[in-house]
Amino acid sequence: NLALLEERERIAMDLHDGIIQSIYAVGLNLEGCAERVKEDPRGVREQLERAMDDLNDVIKGIRTYIFNLRPSFSDGRGLTETLAEALKALKVNPSMEVKLIAEEVCGALSQEQVTQLAHITKEALANVLKHARANSVTVRLLSKDHGLILSILDNGVGFDPQMVEPTAGQGLRNVAERARALGGSVSVKSASGLGTEIVVQIPLVGDGRESKG
Questions:
Q1: Residue 34 reports pLDDT greater than 70
Q2: pTM
């Protein structure tokens, strides 16, 4: 029935945006180890230790998902801290400049909003790693007009949004679905040779301020 199909779609999206992307990041780390093993064995050892830690985190995430059927992405942390954790995946590439610019968020953020925004960021960053050939990524978080704006900007090769590759297209569809689930929207600004910016806007409620973590 429809409810079962929707639940299967949700599970597939959660696995793709969370666990599968984490495994992909570990794979990139291991590829880097293979390339550097002769010239920098000490550095490779540190990378391998990090890969083992990351795999342990993946295993923990899978166990949590199996028992709860919901991924525990942010573990109660603030949004800024959660985004900083997601950005660590890009640091497997030593030539990649990674920047997080986060203003204090006006309005209350639920844990579900934090989790979904973290998934959106992780999906967008995975597309940067796979397709952009960028050496700089900036994630910006700010509040404006009773809403929250999340921007992921890279200086990569860019693309025509009307002719996106199927693998990247799935990621962008997941981003759009998660934004809509939060009552928000997503826009993609890109052109060949000019990089890509993904901008997500969601409404905020309440008078509290989300901790920077």
A1: yes
A2: 0.63
